[in-house]
Amino acid sequence: MSARTALIQPQTAHRWLPAACPRKVPHHWRPWLQDEGSLTQRLTRAAQGEFAVRVLSQHWACPSADEARALGMPPRQIALIREVELLGRNGVPWVYARSVLPASTLTGRERRLRLIGSRSLGSLMFRDPSLSRSPLVSAPMRDENGQGYWARRSVFRLHNKPLLVCEVFLPAMEHVQYPL
Question: Which residues of 30-44 are buried (b: 16+ CB within 10 A; e: fewer)?
Answer without folding.
Answer: bebbbeeeebbbbbb
